[in-house]
Amino acid sequence: MFDLIIRNANLPDGSEGVDICVSGGTIAEIGPRIEAVAKDEIDATGRLVTPPFVDPHFHMDATLSLGLPRMNVSGTLLEGIALWGDLRPLLTREALVERALNYCDLAASQGLLAIRSHVDTSDPRLVTAEALIEVREKVAPYIDLQLVAFPQDGYFRARDGSKSLERALDMGLDIVGGIPHFERTMAEGKESVEALCRIAADRGLPVDMHCDETDDPMSRHIETLAAETVRFGLEGRVAGSHLTSMHSMDNYYVSKLIPLMAEAEINVIPNPLINIMLQGRHDTYPKRRGMTRVRELMAAGLNVSFGHDCVMDPWYSMGSGDMLEVGHMAIHVAQMAGIEDKRKIFDALTVNSAKAMGLEHYGLAKGCHADMVMLQARDPLEALRLKATRLAVIRRGKVIARSAPRVSQLMLAGRPSSVDAAAYAPKLPGGV
Length: 432
Ligand code: FE2
Description:
Blueprint: E1 2-9, E2 18-23, E3 26-32, E4 38-43, E5 49-50, E6 53-58, H1 77-87, H2 93-109, E7 112-120, H3 127-139, E8 144-150, H4 161-171, E9 175-176, H5 186-203, E10 207-211, H6 221-231, E11 238-242, H7 251-263, E12 267-269, H8 272-278, H9 294-299, E13 303-304, H10 323-333, H11 339-349, H12 351-357, E14 372-375, H13 380-386, E15 390-395, E16 398-402, E17 408-409, E18 418-419
Parallel strand pairs: 1-4, 6-7, 7-8, 8-9, 10-11, 11-12, 12-13
Antiparallel strand pairs: 1-2, 2-3, 5-14, 14-15, 15-16, 17-18
């Protein structure tokens, strides 16, 4: 007897009428109409069951701090960094832990069960690292949390930035971060990439850098990051987050850059909500979108995944822990509205981001962790369009969150008595 069977599910790959049998927190069987019994059964009634959402780029030390100690008036990246600098000395471990746990509650309810968070290591107190290590332990039963040692004020630019970063890694942070475009000069930015890749290679850790988060087409640290990745044999273990300068780069230069990034197997992590909000701020009109070249990078075989980056913090006053909101924005900003385009966007929120984070036993296959989300949608395209309600979130075979379907009652003579938005889409070949 299995612990749980989910019956009649649609899967992200388009298969329908699938049963998923769970035993001991693992997917034991998956296929059409499995003859078996279980202690518990959930009828998916032809709705989408997907592996959980994965956010490969977030700032859990800053989340939910909106308004502390004041609002970002200009709405720019640089004022956000300055504001964070004002808040940082006031941070306490207790408040950081409380806000992060609150965010993780929200994330779990949205089926977001793996998050990579950058952790600012610029303040030598390292209260951020202490707090997030505590949170990583506390949420481990329901969220895989990876922590990046992130020298927000610059590895060289901040006083003792290099020492603080190494101490944070000694404390147990998982990944080496960086911010080369924020160092004092291009040369120091390049030097920081080299130094940080060396640290990662020596310690056997992955790398994830905020890289070229600027509209300056000459900000080319991604080239150095890719070259150093190859030099240190770190292929597949390095992420370039943001890469917004690629939006504005010369096309000929990019035609050489993308193959180098592919050679280095760079994981590309744009952040659509933040990129469209913060980039192009020095432009009058026309204003650049600023997000990196998602379609071209995907076409070159690079692993592209999307991050949420910020939720209600000094940089972004919006956000809800909903990765479908991130994907919804990505469809618009990258202008990827075709059926296959949208399937790729959904993958970028799930399987691609799991790959970027190096998650093991992720997916809907025999032997994978029984981690799943049932949505009020038939397929990934509908899920993205509706930012669909998470009817059930399952972690290691146990339901950890439930939501009622979003259905409106209608009081109109001669019309139906209720409206389920998910029931209105015309059925198209291959999706909605
Ligand atoms: Fe970020």
